[in-house]
TrEMBL record:
It comes from Hymenobacter sediminicola. This is DUF814 domain-containing protein. GO terms for cellular component: RQC complex. GO terms for molecular function: ribosomal large subunit binding; tRNA binding. Pfam families: NFACT-R_1, NFACT_N. Gene3D superfamilies: ibrinogen binding protein from staphylococcus aureus domain (2.30.310.10). InterPro entries: NFACT_RNA-bd, RQC_Subunit_NEMF. Residues 414-503 form the NFACT RNA-binding domain. One of its GO terms (biological process) is rescue of stalled ribosome.
Length: 529
């Protein structure tokens, strides 16, 4: 709530009292999204450092500040020499206004998405913007001195405000709403809801204490006791900012990396569990339906009873308690040929069953590993150095190089930190294999049919895990003429064993050494469950 209206409402009179007789002596920036203003009354100094980044807008009030000799730029020259008259907050908004005795104003717009600073020499004068790209901010008008600072709040600003009085108070933000809900607001009758809100607003307008809290992995300043309370502070807005902002900035890197790690592990656990579930479902279907071998055995057992050119035959299934069973046949194919094809499919089905069982076990193990790491992550101490050591120990480090996925002319997929590139057509396949692929990258292609070249980017010191190879093989199968096959053989080999013979057509290559895996073609954009 350090940028919330109710906190700024507490901060504004404190700054008015603190800065009485102070005038601006310096205004500059030495970092991106930072505006530093130095004031003095002749004997003491006061520093205001505005962090105007969308990630963390804040007003820091350091007790001392040392300007760097390099990379420092003077800004807003007309602000120099201006003497502070009053600091106010725009009604029900996140805009803090400094009015100077000359009539000039400086507005700090502290919206989390587009913060800015707006300076005017007069109320009707041209606006000088700190972030010049936010041109609509020039339309934000300063609060005139004769205007009341607390206009009456409209009784309704939303159609459903009668059933939910919170809609009439848009400045409350998320923390007060959370606080109400933890005190039974949602289940309360309308009269009780209104009473709870009025009591809450009285508390926000005259807080007895302020709190630095941790909520959902973020360190925040609150006017209400919520989440895990890190520190309890007196209701001194200036002292609270001086305590909160340095702590929040020091924790931001830790909290960001912690959040990213948690999201990565949760995503991997979900993907692994989904993949294992799909494998188990397919395995169950194979184990509880009549297999190709059983059908072939029945055809051969009743071969003498099948007339030539028959499209179907009814037999007694000795595999299923001698129940009658209807077997469809191809009139253009002899029963012996049909049985032979079924025996071949049965052999592939055995391989598929074994691979499905292995995949399910492997992916379940991976999901369990991710859940264990999430438990460890929750127990780690609040220390960025320890967090990074733990991340490195478990090989969960983020990519150090900027990803060029948007610039690559191929289909790009990610799996467990590995980049998978898929060619779009014959010419694009040549581009991928001949120009973009490194000799140590893994190269895949559906065997004996036309299809996309697939490349798994090599990562130094990290062999490509089996689940990633499997995913890449499924992509190679899907982007080939075997897309609708129940099982597809895929060639897997290091790129160094793939060469293009002289005079070969676009997309044609020669593979000198290969390993073949059998996979089920998988649509990468189809989500199961």
């Amino acid at each position: 709530m350090h940028t919330n209206y109710y906190f700024l409402r507490l901060l504004a009179p404190a700054l008015t009292q603190q800065l009485a007789g102070y005038q601006v002596v310096t205004c500059f920036s030495q970092e991106k999204d930072e505006l530093v203003i130095g004031l003095t009354n002749g004997t003491a100094e006061f520093w205001l450092k505005a962090q105007l980044s969308a990630a963390f807008p804040a007003l820091a009030l350091p007790e001392t500040f040392h300007r760097a000799r390099a990379n420092s730029v003077d800004l807003m020259p007309d602000l120099l020499g201006q003497q502070v008259q009053q600091v106010v907050v725009l009604p029900q908004d996140r805009v803090l206004q400094f009015r100077f005795r000359s009539g000039a104003t400086l507005l700090f717009k502290l919206y989390s998405s587009r913060p800015n600073a707006i300076f005017r020499l007069t109320d009707d004068g041209a606006a000088e913007l700190f972030h010049q790209r936010y041109t609509p901010d020039a339309d934000i008008r300063p609060l005139a001195t004769e205007q009341p600072t607390e206009p009456a709040l409209p009784q309704a600003v939303a159609p459903d405000s009668a059933t939910n009085p919170l809609k009439r108070y848009p400045a409350l933000s998320d923390l007060p709403a959370r606080y109400l809900r933890t005190h039974g607001y949602d289940a309360a009758p309308p009269e009780a809801k209104e009473q709870q809100i009025q009591e809450l607003i009285k508390r926000l307008e005259n807080p007895e204490e302020l709190f630095i809290i941790t909520l959902e992995g973020r360190t925040r300043l609150s006017l209400l006791p919520l989440g895990e309370i890190v520190r309890t502070l007196p209701a001194d807005a200036i002292a609270a900012l001086r305590a909160f902002v340095p702590l929040a900035l020091s924790r931001r890197a830790y909290e960001l990396e912690l959040r990213q790690l948690r999201q990565t592990l949760e995503r991997r656990a979900e993907e692994a569990a989904t993949s294992a579930g799909m494998a188990r479902t397919r395995l169950h279907a194979l184990e509880h339906t009549a297999g190709y071998r059983q059908t072939a055995d029945l055809i051969m057992a009743y071969l003498s009873q099948i007339p030539a050119g028959a499209t179907q035959v009814e037999v007694v299934d000795f595999y299923q308690d001698n129940q009658p069973r209807l077997i469809k046949l191809k009139p253009t194919e002899t029963p012996q040929r049909t049985a032979q094809n079924l025996y071949r499919k049965a052999k592939n089905q055995q391989i598929e069953t074994r691979q499905l069982a292995e995949r399910a076990e492997r992916r379940e193990t991976e999901a369990f590993w991710c859940l264990e790491r999430l438990e460890e992550l929750a127990a780690l101490p609040l220390d960025l150095r320890i967090l990074r050591q733990w991340r490195k120990q478990h090989q969960l480090e983020p990519e150090t190089k900027a990803k060029a996925s948007q610039e690559l002319p191929f289909k790009v997929f990610e799996d467990s930190g590995f980049t998978i590139l898929v060619g779009r057509n014959a010419q694009n396949n040549d581009l991928l294999t001949q120009r973009y692929a490194h000799k140590d990258d893994l190269w895949l292609h559906a065997k004996d049919v036309s299809g996309s070249h697939v490349v798994v980017r090599h990562r130094a010191g990290q062999p490509v895990p089996e689940p990633v190879i499997e995913r890449a093989a499924q992509l190679a199968a899907w982007y080939s003429r075997r897309q609708n096959d129940s099982l597809c053989p895929v060639t897997v080999t290091p790129k160094k064993f793939v060469r293009k013979p002289k005079g070969a057509l676009p997309g044609q290559v020669l593979v000198e050494r290969e390993k073949v895996v059998l996979v089920v073609p998988a649509n990468p954009f189809e989500r199961v469950g």
